[in-house]
Design goal:
about 180 residues; alpha/beta; 5 strands
């Protein structure tokens, strides 16, 4: 999945409002585990009045040791697949959901730039993890636009796409 235009603040705030309204309507709770977005998704959600009724917690797990200690991402997963992988994203989402006793877990992990620690990794590569009571899945994003690897753009686009994916999962059970 590739993001189109960068999300502007009005669109992303409306998206967060839509997520809160849907969670309220369905009487569901959400929790987030963020790496590359650094708590941005939790901020966007908690900016919306009424979020306290549906938002359980947000964990900013930037380092591997915190991913292991707080989110119970296995050391084996991190060693075999790295922190930026679908496997890590899915473990983060499933484990934050369980930790918070929430209905939905949402996670992000990726390379926001300006360069990745491994020259073979692509700046702008982001995995969004999603977990509900019946399934855990992921979305792979390539968010670098053109030749630019703008960190703010990548983080904001990752947050936007994560909110869209969460809405899709709650509405349809399918992530598009």
């Amino acid at each position: 999945m590739d993001s189109g235009k960068p999300a502007n603040s009005l669109n992303i705030n409306l998206l967060a409002r839509e997520l809160i309204d849907l969670l309220l309507e369905k009487n569901l709770k959400i929790a987030t585990a963020e790496s590359c977005t650094g708590g941005l998704i939790a901020k966007l959600i908690t900016d919306i009045p009424g979020a306290s009724e549906v938002f359980e917690c947000g964990i900013c797990a930037y380092s591997n040791s915190i991913k292991e200690k707080l989110l119970s991402v296995s050391a084996r997963t991190l060693a075999q697949h790295t922190a930026v992988s679908k496997e890590t994203a899915m473990e983060m989402a499933a484990n934050v959901r369980k930790l918070a006793n929430a209905d939905v877990g949402l996670s992000t992990t990726g390379y926001a730039g300006p360069k990745s620690p491994n020259s073979s990794d692509t700046v702008g590569l982001v995995y969004v993890g999603l977990s509900n009571m019946t399934k855990t899945t992921y979305v792979r994003l390539n968010l670098a636009h053109g030749n630019s690897a703008d960190r703010d753009y990548i983080r904001l686009s990752a947050a936007y796409n994560a909110l869209v994916a969460a809405l899709d999962l709650i509405k349809t059970g399918i992530v598009k």
